[in-house]
Amino acid sequence: MSVASQDDKSRVASNAYFPDIPKILPHEKVFPIQIGGELFRLSGASISSDAPSYFSQFFEQQLANLEENQTIRTLYIDRDPITFRDIARHLQGYHVSPKDGQHFVRLFADAQFYSLPKLISQLFESEIFISIGSRHFQINRDLFQSPGNSPNYFSLGFAVFFSSPNEVFPGLAREGLLRPPSILPPEVPNRSADVFAELLHLLRGYPVHIRNEEHRQELLRDCKYFHLKGLEQKLIPHEISWNQRRQRQEIVIRLEDIKPSGVAFLPDSGGDQFPGAKQSSGWINYMRPFVDDIQRELVVEIGGEQTKVDFRSGRAEFTGTTNQRVSALFQVIANKLGLPVGHERALGLVLLGQNGSTTGSSGPASPGNTPLSEDRVKIKLGPECFIKLDGEEYLDRDWMGSFDAHDNDMADGVSAPSGSDAGRSPFLGVQGQSGPRKRHKRQGSMEEGGGEWVVKRGQWRVRVQTTTGQDGRSGVEVVLVGVRLEAFSGEYGRNSQRGFLI
Description:
This protein is α+β, with helices and mostly antiparallel strands.
């Protein structure tokens, strides 16, 4: 034997080549392992590289009881030798990556069965292999780490594979276990593979063209199914724009899509939110959770024909789920303002007096069960509000000056620039004359509804302002300021907008 080969053998024996491998078994010794019909011979260094394990414990016991002139007994395990080839490569220092879902579960099951901690951890951190709608996906785990998208369906629903690297066979003792139970690759057969592929495309930062509202709802349904809340916020219908007249950014969003964490109050002075009794007027702003980094003035869209406005009294009444959502929004605003309210109701609030006694109703949830409004919410419809009544633009709006015309700060909530229409009533015409533009009023448009309209769809700004009650004490109220309304004056107007099925 050459001097060089003796030196190499000496270095192996002295652990010089394997400084990070513990000496659980003699590194230079070879140990036979029979997997199914194939014999593998692995060095003590290879077995010790991922230990303690089933292999290291078996051969440690043999070496401890080995008598002189006895040979190491072969360890026989009735498992798949093809899968073990990858495990042997891992023990020899090679990086092993699963090829597909079937390969992943076999490697993971055998790594658990053989108690290989490093390989288990490596597979635990590897890509996710899953079948969605009979199509196989290989997903990088980092894709789900963006704000709002974790924890999700994969970290919560597939805990057996992805949540705990320590137990994949809970309740089964490895000692005396001939073989682990059969494991199938993760599968979600009841979801669309095409929709999931589009969600992955979005998560990677690419845009997805929303073809129509039905397509959007498909994406949103699966976002909710997989608990991808951050992605869901990107997909909900919204519009962000810069309002040159108001010098503010605006966000239009549906009432049902508003999240409490995104609601904020911006006083007219531009200061901080007022606490408790230190009250002022301002506008409600909104930022989408997990997505937006700045607040924008909120324009809330309310649809479903569940809004009735009485333009004589300047009040709106809501029914059905819209009434509950408006009440919930008022409750959130009250909490943001730090009003002294109790939380005994899920959607309605009980207003507390100065001595702690209850002064408000504890009945069903409604705007009137918040400290911010009566059951019929106050509204403002100024000349800047576009109204489409019974399918036609409504211009005959002299009646707008009949209520609260003195409340000039409700016109737009910002100081008008020099030389503009500053100081005039918010219900005066656009030319500065005593009324808005006129055209011939359609017969029955006002009279048929008895002064009330049913709003098919409406967009409103949300105003918070101080008010004085009948007892002379100041309080806070929320006012909905009209931006755009599509309304019906009565059954005639509603029927005129009906379409035929064919």
